[in-house]
Amino acid sequence: MSASSSPSSSLSPVVSFDWLEERLGTAGVKVVDASWYLPAHKRDPKAEYAAAHIPGAVFFDQDAISDPTSGLPHTLPAPEAFAAAVGALGLSDSDTIVVYDGPGYFSAPRAWWMLRVMGAANVFVLDGGFDAWKAEGRPVSDAETTIEPAVFSARFDEKAVTSFQDMKSIVASGSRQIADARSAGRFSGEEPEPRAGMRSGHMPGARNLPIGQLTEGGKLKSPEALRETFTAAGIDLDAPVVTSCGSGVTAAVISLALNSLGHENHTLYDGSWAEWGSRADTDVVTGKE
């Protein structure tokens, strides 16, 4: 990145409101609204984007930019399909890309992770989210963003993704720690899954780390606080981790938090609980441990 587009800390995967506002409209700096919500949130991300978005932002449809053949909600599309979809949004793998969602750390990290795993190096999440951006009176627009299609050259990092067969081996051997981002109730089996016909509970050996524990006031916790949070959840930051959640979206919040701490030995289980909890050939345990 050039000095003009580089965030204050090159190690941080997040940027501040001030950092982004100063660079709105700068060549090579692209803004992406990657908002997505569960039905319980009762929020329509496309309608919200049309009504108000950061000027110049494009909408990244989490449901559409996925593999339509997998039978699961949000699995990664083929690299060439991903490249075509984001290139049509005007995104190049060489751009500096800032991704946001409403609350700050719900679905934006998933788009951050996807872009990175497909080869974009300079991708960041807007710390604080669009809800707070609006509340502070920062610039918003309801104008349709003019998009100039770009070429996104995908370079898929297959090693960053854990498959179902990988996950079965990990659970059987205990070779990697499993950090599950779902709520405590879903993890323990005390609350039902939002998708019909799916068992609740968790994979044997998994540790629960709900995403709300990684943020404070809509912003990512300090490195010191994050380390304490991981330790309290039983996650050893000196050992490999695989992240998981309901459908692969919020697992990326844990991935981003790990990245912010310089932890590089982590992968994301793309099928997540939507895959594991819906199969008859997987072990599911209940309770808090």
From TrEMBL:
Keywords: Cytoplasm, Pyruvate, Repeat, Transferase. SUPFAM superfamilies: Rhodanese/Cell cycle control phosphatase. It is found in: Cytoplasm. PROSITE patterns: RHODANESE_1, RHODANESE_3. It catalyses: 2-oxo-3-sulfanylpropanoate + [thioredoxin]-dithiol = [thioredoxin]-disulfide + hydrogen sulfide + pyruvate + H(+). InterPro entries: Rhodanese-like_dom (IPR001763), Rhodanese-like_dom_sf (IPR036873), Thiosulphate_STrfase_CS (IPR001307), TST/MPST-like (IPR045078). It holds the Pfam family Rhodanese. It comes from the Bacteria. CDD domains: TST_Repeat_1, TST_Repeat_2. One of its GO terms (cellular component) is cytoplasm. Residues 181-205 are annotated as: Disordered. This is 3-mercaptopyruvate sulfurtransferase. It comes from Xaviernesmea rhizosphaerae. The lineage of its organism: Bacteria, Pseudomonadati, Pseudomonadota, Alphaproteobacteria, Hyphomicrobiales. The gene is sseA.
